[in-house]
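[job 0412] stage=fold_complex status=start
inputs:
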Amino acid sequence: MSYPYQIKNAEEYKAAYKKSTEDPEGFWGEVASHFQWRKPWDKVLDWNFSEPKIEWFKGAKLNITENCIDRHLATMGDKPAIIWEPNNPEERTRVVTYNRLHKRVCQFAQVLTNLGVKKGDRVCIYMGMVPELAYAVLGCARVGAIHSVIFGGFSAQSIADRLYDANAEYIVTCDGAYRGNKDIPLKSVIDDALIGNRTVKKVIVYTRTRTPVSMLKGRDVWWEDEMEHAEQQVEKDGKVSFPATEMDAEDPLFILYTSGSTGKPKGVVHSCAGYMVYTAYTFVNVFQYQKEDIHFCTADIGWITGHSYILYGPLSAGATSVMFEGIPTWPDAGRFWDIIDKYKVNILYTAPTAIRSLMGFGLGHVHGHKLDSLKVLGTVGEPINQEAWHWYHENIGKGKCPIVDTWWQTETGGILISNMAGVTPDKPTYATLPLPGVDPILVDENGKIIEGNNVSGNLCIRHPWPSVIRTTYGDHERCRLNYFSAYPNLYFTGDGASRDENGNYRITGRVDDVLNVSGHRIGTAEVENAINMHAGVVESAVVGYPHDIKGQGVYAYVIYDHVHGDENLTRQDILQTVTRVIGPIAKPDKIQFVKGLPKTRSGKIMRRILRKIAEGDTGNLGDTTTLLDPGVVEEIRSGKL
Ligand code: WT7
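[job 0412] stage=fold_complex status=done
writing structure:
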């Protein structure tokens, strides 16, 4: 069974693309007519990129959870919505049907209401990958609270910054989380984040690892107690209900923090209607989801990929989504392949860094697995190299599964450039063609549009698509400056790209000071700030360098005024500081101590030179005549790690 808005072949793709550019309002109005609305829109689109102000399905009323859950109940209440695979393969699997998901989300919405959460309130969610995380996210959406999920790898300090920025009054967390052979004490991290905090009113704690936790009277409550109480409230005569809050199309649905080239992470805001329509549309079309398929996206719900392609996209399409608590290498590097055979997964969506890491463990872990249920493979998060692409295609897809290389960003909400499985051709290392409704262009440094093919430039998008970022929370001007001011009337992605003779796009990586480490976005300025907080550090400069598994590694040049202990201990101290300030995901892979940094006469660090040295490309460092002290370059070059 297919969907009314599902594109089935290359001709239909061309026709849909043409219609989407000639008549975007007609095109998206038609797609949106297949969703459930409390009240239809007055106007499909109103926009300008100069403020920016972007309104999709203006005037419409809806609740996204009615689309993701309620409307499926009559026809497929017993269909699995979420199949949960625990970290420990010996532990029991949990299959959450649409009926069960409905009940749990209603219950949790009631819990939130009982605790005083109202429409528009910000709820921070810091949990492991357990089904309760899905209930928490959707429970927020049901009452119209704005969720802000924070990935478990962020530190107490990062959480505190985000709580403050979003002015969040509620937190949902777990006692701990299992990841491989580790237990991560989430609640205790939250406790650290809350030292001195005066705004958070309630912390809901779900028991996963039963690690000892401190529960503050009046503030901290157990998930299980609250849910038990709520069960009696939402269930009457065997029927479960909790009325969903009616939301305006443009009401914010969630905030997700992401790093930029400067300063602190920004709270990217997505709104209800456009995000819903676009994630469902792209899910169905890119992966060519068929109604009985099992979809397995390996991302964490702490990132946009998990929001859009584990939860909202698949659930609004009534799909079955696998949610995995653990990591790809535990108990061994065959874990993904075990899961695929166990649930007969049809679609696997993962990241190049995971593929490269599993490649490194050898084919021994792939052999002995059938993998014959697989129909479609996908990648996301960073450019995929030739070697990884072919390994994935041959050994996992057995040469018969198309690979969709999906390019998008936290800010875009959903996939913008990708082939569609079996519909438009794949081309190794190319994200290929824009999806319907997406109008990419390349521009040069001066904002001049680069026409024609076999060209490269900075990637921009010309017209809004339904799930484009609406604002950065609490600071609209920052949104304008970051994305809509570099080139007038264009959304600037921060990525460089090339376009081949057939119009296929190849994303070459960031052109700003943002790193992509294992598919995670890390701002160099953020890491520098963290390093500079360490006593003894005078100054630092952070750049990326090619890393076999992570894609990019973090290389830090550090000036210090005295070593405490020896250099290696000082390195450990700096790593500890970064872990405290940001989290383990931002730890530098290499720290080189230097006496000076290459600076221009006006005091600007010349990162181009530092990048070249870190990359090991020290032959030609380009023009160094504008340097204040060209001597430092030689010192840095000779000390390269
Ligand atoms: C950046 C966005 C969107 C989900 C995960 C990352 C890079 C993303 C691809 C791809 C080449 C890619 C870009 C982009 N990126 N997908 N298929 N090919 N590069 O989300 O953390 O917001 O990072 O990831 O550089 O700007 P994110």
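[job 0412] summary: Residues 518-638 form a domain with the GMP Synthetase; Chain A, domain 3 fold (CATH 3.30.300.30).
[job 0412] exit 0
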